[in-house]
Design brief:
heterodimer; A: 295 residues; mainly alpha; ABC transporter involved in vitamin B12 uptake, BtuC; two-stranded antiparallel sheet; 11 helices; B: 323 residues; two-stranded antiparallel ribbon; 77% helix; globular
Amino acid sequence: MSGFDTAMVPVLQAVLSGVLVGGVYGLLSIGLSLAFGVMRIVNFAHGDLVMYGMYVGVVASAALGIDPLLALPASFLIMAVLGLAQYQFVFRRFVGATTLNQLLAAIGLGLALQMVAQLVFGVDARSATSMFAGSYDLVGPFFFARAQIVAFVVALIATVAVELLLRRTQWGKSVRAVADNIEAAEIVGLRSQRINLGAFALSCGLAGIAGTIMVTYYPTDPTKGFALMPIAIIATTIGGLGSITGAFLGGIFCGVVQQSTAMLWNSALQDVPLYVLLLVFIAFRPTGLFGGRSE
Amino acid sequence: MNRRRQSLILGAAAIVLTALLPVSGVNDYIVAVAVRMLIFIALGQAWNVVAGIGGLLSLGHGVFLGLGCYATGILFNDYGLPPWLGVWVGALLSLAIALVMGTMTLRMRGVFFALATIAVSLALDQLARHYVDLTGGDNGLALKFLGNSLWFMQSRRPMPFLYAALVFVVAYYWITRWILASRFGLEMRAVRDDETAAAAAGVPVFRTKLLGLLVSAVMTSVAGTLYMQSYQAIDPETAFGLSQAIQLQLPALIGGLGTSWGPIVGGAVMILLSEGTNLGSTKLGIAGVDILVYGLLLLAVVMYAPKGIMGLFNTRARARSES
């Protein structure tokens, strides 16, 4: 262990583990940020779709004998379809402004989804086995769970893909146009409802991917959705509400803060600094680190 | 008969009926349900001030409920301080937290305030679970029972709490009425309906929002003390958990946001529904159905009756007077 002080090893280990965990927090957050950026919808039920995504992984591995990683496309599609239904029945009427009623509707929807999961899958924690479960890699003095490395890579690919989709394709351009100015977009002939529907489905599909990749190293139960929401919300706010890359980096930031707190202070209080950080960001930098929408 | 007299008569009748409940020969279970109903009405009235009149969505009002409960309980158990004094410590703590939270977030758009209230309740949840010596951790805090005593606000039977809670509901009703009729209430509603226009008309927007939050926080915390005395125990999930936060919101939402009667009607409906589903689900052997009911209720109210039960009344009354 030449080159650096051995006392620094636990700190660096915490930071590196934080980056890996945080990448997946980022994946949880980009869908949330997309729905907010385009439609001003804060979807508190997003976490519950992540939870359903986790169960897709469980069902694939336990009932069908398929590796959860191979179930990723199916999970994306199922959650996207669920997202279409959510948009049509609930969120359609709330597009354009984050209102009290919109937040409450999302919470109500989330509770109902959670309860349905409980009736179908029961309250016990379930996990899925993927081909990388239980293998670890040693890099110098550091060790990493391989499942987490794979999850980080998937999160990174998804983030880059969504950014490219929004920036480089015709559809992405029309989504951004509707997000910027819905009336002007309609005047030039864009059909905003259809575009919003697509963006919302994409947002929910991303939740599915996040869940299915997460369940390869983190067991699920019906309350996991709401349990994951706070961190996704904090990552999205710190990254800048509405920004995709911002949400991903915000997730990594949260992961590093959380893992460092757990390592250096107290793992039972690992999220407390994040809650304080959220307040600090809201008070002093509501646009987040990477300049989201603040109006 | 005008509406003022109508509501006066209805109110007097409700008070007399509730007060006569213990002497009517019903068992303690029914009285306990009535106490629960009145306490949640009072908590709903407190939330209604900030969210109904002020339009600020506090998703974490459990913070103030929890501070009221824990402050009273810890001071009593560890220092023998009677709740008559503990209640003010809880209220001061709630005031302080509301002041910090409000100052940091109320200059921004409403969504940030909503997110911040969640963060604060989750932070208190983790802290309460961790500092076991002070709070009892996950298992919660149980009041030491010293026997029936007015000085320590303790009673084996629920009857005294019925009268205490009734006093709360009547007092909070008058506070709500007073706020609605005052200049402060008018300014709060102006800010709720159109912040920019209110500011242009000279309303001090930030100060109005902050004051609304402070009033509501203290009301919740004081009612929290009553909650603690009546239930004699509190734990992190009950204080800061999501389903509690929703139970604090539902009375005003079901009954009608921003109205003086809304939380009263809504709280009664919520507790009856919750007791009904609990009975039903124990018979069927399914746990947690009340969560599903709360979720669907929340969804139904905000989508189909955003003005609550009082809203249905008012539109019907208006339609009748117009025809």
